[in-house]
Amino acid sequence: MKSVSLIIHSMRAFFMFFFMPIVMSSCADESITFKQPIEVIDYYQFDEHNLDLHGINASIMIPNETAGIGASFETEITHNDGDFKWQISAGRNFNIFIEDYGDYQYRMPEFLRKIESQDIFKTEIIQQKGDYVIFKRELNLTSKKTSTYHLYGVKYINGVYYEIKNKEEGDSKKVVDFILKSFLSFKSINLEL
User: Which among 149, 80, 86 has a CA at the least distance from the CA of 121?
Assistant: First the structure.
């Protein structure tokens, strides 16, 4: 009698430990997915700027004087009322240009086609994500190779597509890295009354 009881107990334990997890996992409503870890950006050399007073319901982080890129001046935001363009400057080296394109969503594919089709510059894409691209540009017409770095991105905030880029002449890689951090920080703000 003890051996039958021991066999029944062993069968229950076997069933419980091996078949129950299979049954329970097959009954789950959702499949188990693993998410990519979220990259945390260090903004310790940046100051947050609210753009609401300048016509954009958003904020952006701009490097301060501790960044070591010549951003030792007060951040200046230039915008004419009724216009669709903004310039954010923090010293002579750090300039971001923002343009409002309303609900026009095709700026990024148009820009990528444009840089691929030009032949004045040798263009190398350094990094490309869904909403931005960082690229290096060299002039094809000279023997002296001078590289400049550029960021072009499009952010969708509150129903509006904003084109964001650095100056046309380009910047150093270090400055473009700071511009990328600013681009990634550009986000909608809640205005609660």
Answer: 149
- Residue-wise pLDDT for 12-62, tens only, equals 655 555 555 554 555 545 555 556 666 778 888 899 999 999 999 999 999
Pull the structure tokens for residue 82: 């009724």
CB contact at 8 A, 154 and 131? yes
Note the CATH number of domain 46-188. Answer: 3.40.1000
Phi, psi of 13 (to 5 degrees): -65, -45
Contact between 94 and 178 (Cβ < 8 Å): yes
At position 158, the amino acid (one-letter code) is N
Q: How far apart are CA 45 and CA 185, in angstroms?
A: 13
Beta bridge partners of 60: 49
Residue 87: other Cβ atoms inside 10 A: 13
Give me the DSSP letters along 25-77.
HHT-SS---PPPPPPPP--TTEEEEE-GGGT-SEEEEEE-GGGSSS--SPPEE
Q: The whole model's pTM is what?
A: 0.75
Q: Which of 119, 64, 93, 83 is nearest to 174 (CA)?
A: 93
Task: Indicate the SS3 state at residue 94.
Answer: coil
